[in-house]
Design brief:
four-stranded antiparallel sheet; single chain; alpha+beta; transmembrane; 8 strands
Length: 235
């Protein structure tokens, strides 16, 4: 009976170990792995006078390693937990970024509610900040003529920052239905340049976000040009 129970527990332990590798979430993988090594430890101890001392330290060691990593992941996830506002911005502005780099980007920025009419950038002037719209709209004007509107998840001032040149257009905060201005997250250009120099992970995360936004804007612009071309084509 004891041999049957020992064999049964070993099979359960191996099944649980195999189950751990089916989880895509590394936290669950670690926690289930802890369960499997605990089962192996019980089997090693339950053999009475034939305790498997040569294997028990390994089982307990792997248990401690996986449990320690799981606790570290839980701690980190509490640090990288989003507020509702951050979660909404992550979904529309940084969907390709995982939680940790997205949270780092947002921690380095400042949240602001802009007054309607506030100019985020001025044509032919260097911008002091790079913005991303979290809520509301921003009007883009060129030579005092409105040409586009930017909404949630779209950046303002990023082209001038990347190219190191003055803004190519003026951007103006518009009022919402409740007469408030747009809600934005902004980074000082000087601070961004310093972070780019000393923090390669931050730089990669920001470049990924800016690149995705630029690609979307280019695509929208190409569609607009195509539509104008079709409209102007004589029948």
């Amino acid at each position: 009976m004891a041999e049957f129970l020992e064999g049964f527990l070993l099979h359960i332990g191996f099944a649980v170990a195999g189950l751990a590798y089916l989880f895509r979430d590394i936290l669950w993988l670690r926690l289930v792995a802890v369960g499997s090594y605990l089962i192996f430890s019980v089997v090693a101890i339950s053999r009475g006078p034939e305790v498997m001392w040569e294997f028990l330290p390994w089982y307990l060691g792997f248990t401690v390693i996986n449990l320690g990593h799981a606790l570290l992941l839980i701690y980190q996830r509490r640090l990288w937990k989003f507020t509702p506002e951050e979660a909404a911005l992550h979904a529309c502005a940084f969907p390709a970024l995982s939680r940790q780099p997205a949270k780092r980007l947002m921690r380095q920025g400042r949240w602001k509610t802009l007054e309607p009419g506030f100019r985020l950038t001025r044509e032919e002037h260097f911008a002091g900040c790079v913005y991303v719209v979290a809520d509301g709209c921003v009007q883009v004007t060129l030579k005092n003529q409105p040409i586009a509107q930017l909404g949630c998840g779209q950046f303002v001032g990023e082209v001038g920052f990347i190219a190191g040149r003055p803004a190519s257009a003026t951007t103006i905060a518009l009022s919402n239905e409740d007469s408030a201005g747009p809600r934005v997250l902004c980074w000082s250009v000087k601070k961004l340049r310093k972070l780019f120099e000393k923090d390669s992970d931050f730089r990669l995360a920001m470049e990924s976000a800016l690149g995705s936004d630029l690609a979307r804007k280019i695509g929208d612009n190409n569609i607009a040009i195509q539509r104008r071309s079709e409209f102007a084509t004589p029948l």
